[in-house]
Automatic annotation (TrEMBL):
InterPro entries reported in the protein's UniProt record: RecA-like_C, RecA_C_sf
Name this protein carries in UniProt: DNA recombination/repair protein RecA
One Pfam family in the UniProt entry: RecA_C
Gene3D superfamilies per UniProt: RecA protein, C-terminal domain (3.30.250.10)
Organism: Candidatus Thiopontia autotrophica
RecA-like C-terminal domain: residues covered: 1-29
Length: 37
């Protein structure tokens, strides 16, 4: 739908934000690894 396209364009224009969001998602999906280092 349109929402996905808007988000995709936004992340393309804001790569730093995209990286932050990706990091947060990974921390939620992999809580064990996030704290371990």
């Amino acid at each position: 739908g349109q929402g996905k396209d808007k988000v995709r364009q936004y992340l393309k224009d804001n790569p730093e934000t995209a990286r932050e969001i990706e990091q947060q998602i990974r921390e939620q999906l992999l809580p064990d690894r996030a704290g371990g280092g």
